[in-house]
Amino acid sequence: MKVLQSKEYAIFAGKIGLYVVVSAAAVIMVAPFYWMFVTSVSPVQDIVSFPPKWLPSYLVFEHFVEVLNKAPFHFYYMNSLTVAMVSVGCSLFLGLFAGYAFAVYKFPLQNFFFLLILSTIMVPFQVTCVALYILVAKIGWVDTLWGILAPNFASALGIFLIRQSIKSIPPDLIEAARLDGAGEIRIVLTIIAPLIKAALATVGMILFLNSWNDFLWPVIVINSRNLRTIPVGIALFKDPYGSMNYGPLMAAAVISTAPMLIAYFFSQKFIVKGIAVTGLKG
Amino acid sequence: MSTSLTFASFKHWFLVIHRRKYFHAYLFIAPIIILFGIFRVYPAIQTLAYSFYNVELLRHRFTFIGMENFFSLLEDKIFLKATFNTLMYVGCIVPISAGIGVILAVILCAKFRFRQFFKAVYFSPFITSTVAAAMVWWWLYNPQFGLFNNVLKLLHLPPQSWLMSSRQALMSIIIFSIWKTLGYNMIIYIAGLQAIPEQYYEAARIDGANNLVQFFKITIPLLAPITTFILIYNTILAFQIFDQVFVLTGGGPAYSTTVVVLELYQQAFLKHRFGYASAMAAVLFIIILGITIVQYAISKKREIVY
Amino acid sequence: MKYLKTLLILLVLTLLVSASAIAKVTITLWYPEGQITAGAAHFADKTLFADFEAKNNCKVDLVGGDYDTMRQKIFAAMAAGAGRVPDILFVDRSWVPGLLKEDALESVPEADAKQWLAAVSPEIVELSDYGNGQMWGYPQYGIDVYGITWNKDYFAEAGFDPERAPQTWAEFLYYSLKTTKKDAAGNLTRVGYAIRHVGHPHGVVHKFLWALWGAGADLITDPKALKGGKVLFNNEGGKAALKLVYDMIYVDKSTSLNFPDPRAALLQGIAAMQISETISIQARQPKEAPNLRWGVDLPPVRYVGYEPATNLNSWFYSVPRLSMNKELTWKAIKWINSVQRDYELCAKYKSTPRYKENWAKPPFTTDPYAVALRKMLPYGRAYPNNLGLDGIMEALGAAIQQVWHNEAEIGPALAEAEELANKAIRDAAK
User: Fold this and answer.
1) By CA distance, what is C285's nearest residue in A?
2) pTM of structure
């Protein structure tokens, strides 16, 4: 009969405890999602029943059909995707260079410009959106995808995070590259970028999500049905004060969220793997 | 003589610029500065400038009234309540969300099975749009049919009013917001944790320190820059909370959940008092800026460079 | 280089050609789309204006938007100037004072207004006439009348005549008490009367007006005047109205703050009575509560012999001042609101018409809902036209919420609301 030492007990108990805590927390995090998915395929009676039905008595797809019939979601997807990709690509590219400049160079007005960029986060968009709309209208970008992109070509958060991660790169590395005769642009693209892959991926993901879920600005700037983005499409299904129409609303929410979740699952590995490997150790 | 001297100093100046890479610096930041300048900074400045005017945008009439908007703000009971609610909200959500975020990050950096799965699960609320998530939670909070009260009933506990009660509504929104944001904090912390060299932990283990000691003496201090960023960024965002209040309660009941940006929104777009709303934005901006500076100053003192 | 030049010329030519082909004038109409807005349902049919478009060689562009953010969108568009503003704004009529305050709307041409006012039934006149025959737009068919709707089965269960609504406040309290249901733990599972106390203050006030008016109080001294006046709710009647529901919540315990929306509560079977837009129940009951047997009537009055009163609201076709094709726009609005169209659309969408001659035609002579409404409509009152309406609603809504949530006493709450509302009226008159 094998008797476990007390230390082994402790480790075992610790592991169990870990699993319990993590699982309990996970259940709480996921419960709303689970409810969202279940409601989207449940018949109406199940949605309002008590005790709550954790599993639908039978699957119905009419909610999804209703949602897809009511609105041209394929257009919404295309628009959301286009806007997100352009916005993120642009932000990462410009942010990479700007972050590098702020991190590595010392130049006059450096702090002023950096703080100026950061301070734009501190003014609520609700209020600046009108002045922005007037401006965008003057340019003629109202009711176009360019109009949605206008305030989103660059991101203050992106610049900040990229700058932070570039700051942790040893300056010797950059000097070495310069001595080798590399131009600044080449340094940024071929040396810095690969080193901060993880940060870029993380920033990219956050910016993508922000763009995907942006509601207020697309609502104001877009009039045409076919140019709407997904959050705008979903909003039309809400009616908190009344209907029992939670089926279609949850179906719309699922349509919006599912691709992000799937994309996230797949990009997981990529984000984790790109850990900074310095050229010079120590 | 003098011309050659000026030429020499000019050449020297030019070399300095080149060596210090001023040209590259400005080139790299130029696109951002221009784009931000046009689409972010200019509208923001214009809006803040409006706070000194009585703005009748639709009639294109601007009357300068100096500080009058600001004096009115001080007497505006609803604005003061909104500010109070906002401060309460920020005070609750920032430490709790960041705290849970770091704990989860540490747990998820330990090696155990299904770690990636759990990480995805904790991050997933952040992926949803606030509007969609708020709708789900409105349903969860529904006193008759919502999941939360159903669970309470199953456990023979009294059902709560949640969003229907002027005493519970704000807390309900806070709980939702914590759920939504802690995944983001967790991800940032994980990135930071992975940057801490393993050597430190090895050395500590050799010295006989257990996990808890390691956490407090190594992890927390070395995460300080990340913590600074998380606290500052979360605070800035928390002060500007709008979406979930707009969807979940619309500011009620009885002004118990109204927040500054919501009040600003109503003044601007429902009451068409755009100058007054701009004054609110200006006040909010100053508060955010002030608190950010304070946070930054405190963190600078405590930062450890390694 | 040479090829580039020819390419450019070709490009310019094609653009010119296509531009001239789109010489058709386009009228844009903005309306709130989505679950919330049953009154705008007909805009989902994109061929709605087909005949008009053919006859006038134009295009009518129907643009739906989110209801909650619509006012923000309208504001931004107007701020940006004439090119961005739609030609027709289809809005909730309670938004009109706010728009009038900003001088944003175009008034209906006098001759058209005269013609309309002479041809429509009295309650539509009430909604159209802003004083001295001036009209700022056309109310939509399917008028919102507020009335009491009740669950006939629950009335029968409690021993009441299922076809008869309570007539006085005393009866109303009694009915409410008798139709409640509690579970074993003492929690309310069914309320007698479901109240609206959350959400936008406007909605709270709308669903409270029956009590205010029923007690002899009012929102304002002269409901028709655009400027000036004082509020009339800080008095014995107003206090009694607030106390009525307050007692139901805390003394009788026949209702509770935990039931979010009265219409949903009735449809879900967790309330016996509610007072709100009857058209909501009419539209939603077949789908959401097919087995519900429900009645509709005027809300109860305070004492026997008091005149009943109920509120009217509707959607509204309005034309912004900045609209660019005004003549064609008014033509389109007149077309969609003509006698024939009114009849066709009402019959199609099972709604109630506006023209006197249409009311006299079937199915409106026999349909039970239309008949019930016909009886109630003469007692309907529109909301005040005052430019400070938003401020009045906000102030009173806040007072109502604070009292019912036990955050303030009735007296002080109403006094404060009176002060804020009167200030809003003064500010709007400047």
Assistant:
1) A243
2) 0.85
